[in-house]
TrEMBL record:
It holds the Pfam family SBF_like. This is Solute carrier family 10 member 7. It comes from Lynx canadensis. Belongs to the bile acid:sodium symporter (BASS) (TC 2.A.28) family. InterPro entries: Na+/solute_symporter_sf (IPR038770), Put_Na-Bile_cotransptr (IPR016833). Gene3D superfamilies: 1.20.1530.20. The lineage of its organism: Eukaryota, Metazoa, Chordata, Craniata, Vertebrata. Transmembrane segments: none annotated. GO terms for cellular component: plasma membrane.
Amino acid sequence: MRLLERMRKEWFMIGIVLAIAGAKLEPSIGVNGGPLKPEITVSYIAVATIFFNSGLSLKTELADSRLHASPCIFCSDFNQGSWWK
């Protein structure tokens, strides 16, 4: 039972070791133009996932205050942008 508890605690490190071992055994999966398409997944999907995860860790008080201000900024920017047309 201690091994299972230790694995649950260290799940991230185990995942990293497995990913590195898989890349060592089969490097053709991650090559440019390969099945993972790293030129797309790294530049778009990975960056979006990082920003999404960091957004989930924000405190709700901070998010509520920013959500209140963002419609005001959007409307003023949209209105001022349409003046020049």
